[in-house]
Amino acid sequence: MASAAAAAQSAAGAAGAPGKRLVNDVCVDMLLLEASSYLLGRRGKPGEAEDLEAENFRELHHSAIARLESLGWDVGCRLTERLCQTKLLSGEPLEAVKFICKDFWTEVFRKQIDKLQTDHRGTFVLRELNFKWLAKYAPDKSRTDRNLAWFTLQFACGLVRGAMATLNQPATVKADFWDEKTDRSLLPAVSFTIRLKQA
Amino acid sequence: MIVCLAVISKANAPLLVRTYVDPSLGEDQADTTIRFHHIVHTSLDVVQEARAGDRHVPACRRWCAATRDMFLGHLCPMDEYEVYGYVTSTQVKILAVLEETVTSRKSELAALLHTIHGFYVNYQLNPFSPLNQPIGSERFKLAVDRQVNGYNADIG
């Protein structure tokens, strides 16, 4: 798994390195897909689609979800260390979140995040209207697709959580693309909810 | 000259402590190391005070916020040494313990600590290096030693 992290990291990190090394977007997409498939243990087992359809997908694949998330966390930590090498941050939570919305997002997705909302009590909602890593999913169709898209999203959750942790703002991060009210997918729009852990 | 250089994690755990004391002075290596560990540990309190974002610290003492620089400058005298500090945005501290023989050149020291920060970032970018654990990388140690020895040679 370390190699997957390595590759994903160079994918995300190299773009902003002084040497301006760039990484093909498609490669990142493929790598993420492959990592998901590997972690779900789906290699060479096309017949076992039932467990991806299951209502309790999140409990069923608990450890795979945690591993993908922690991979993202690792990359997020290291990448943030690099990105704020020359940037002095005051240590306020809002500044850390702004850093993620602007600098961090620009580095990973080449755009700033679209919307940031906060209740000023430790909760931040980040809305990304065109989330590149899931832009080609169409998870309205079946529960399997929806579960897999959500699973892939956990890597990005980990990225954000790692970045927050490195900036000394330990937090929990959740992401979803499902509108509970209308019971429809909002893809490619995705929202991340960051909740600071109270010290 | 620099007699000790320490990299401290954001949780205040030592990641790397290098000492540069002439072995011919006859002091026991283990003793020296422990002594510098102690000095570095004590200086961390001053770094904590100096650091911006800590609400318990009066604004006038938040040097970092005032200077907008990661290099904190002179922190405190400690026995016969002087301690200088550098804090990154991610709260990784780099401390240099100097034996003041001549007036130290601050800008050069700032540049040195900045370079070491760069080494640290590069070290962290390696996905195989453990996060927030003592640094075992020989390459990192060697790079740091080379920089410090270069600085010491310049001053001396």
Structure description:
The complex is a heterodimer of chains A (199) and B (156). Chain A is an alpha+beta fold and 199 residues long. Helices cover 49% and strands 14% of the residues of chain A. Chain A has one domain (2-196): Trafficking protein particle complex subunit 3 (Muramoyl-pentapeptide Carboxypeptidase, domain 2), CATH 3.30.1380. Chain A is built from seven helices and six strands, in the order H-H-H-H-H-H-E-E-H-E-E-E-E. In chain A, strands 1-2-6-3 form a four-stranded antiparallel β-sheet, with helices on one face. A two-stranded antiparallel sheet of chain A has the order 4-5. In chain A, a hairpin with a 4-residue loop joins strand 4 and strand 5. Chain B has a five-stranded antiparallel β-sheet, with helices on both faces. In chain B, helix 3 packs antiparallel against helix 4 (138-155). Chain B has helices at 29-50, 63-67, 106-125, 138-155, and strands at 2-8, 14-19, 71-78, 81-87, 93-98. Chain B is globular, with a radius of gyration of 15 Å. Chain B has four helices and five strands, in the order ββααβββαα.
Percentage of residues assigned to helices of chain A: 40-55%
Overall pLDDT confidence of chain B? 81
Radius of gyration of chain B: 15 Å
Trace the largest sheet of chain B across and list its strands: 2-1-5-4-3
Physical arrangement of strands within the biggest beta sheet of chain A = 1-2-6-3
Count of β-strands of chain B: 5
C-alpha Rg of chain A, in Å? 17 Å
The average pLDDT score of chain A comes to 80
- Largest beta sheet of chain A, briefly? 4 strands, antiparallel
What string gives the helices and strands of chain B in order? EEHHEEEHH
Described by strand count, sense and barrel closure, the largest sheet of chain B is:
5 strands, antiparallel
Q: Using the coordinates above, name the CATH class of chain B.
A: Alpha Beta
Q: What quaternary form is this?
A: heterodimer
Beta-strand fraction estimate of chain A: 5-15%
How many discrete structural domains of chain B?
1
Class of secondary structure makeup of chain B? alpha+beta
Number of contiguous helices of chain B: 4
Structural class of chain A: alpha+beta
Pfam families (chain A): TRAPP (PF04051)
Protein name (chain A): Transport protein particle component, Bet3
InterPro entries (chain A): NO_sig/Golgi_transp_ligand-bd, TRAPP_component, TRAPPC6/Trs33
Family (chain A): Belongs to the TRAPP small subunits family. BET3 subfamily.
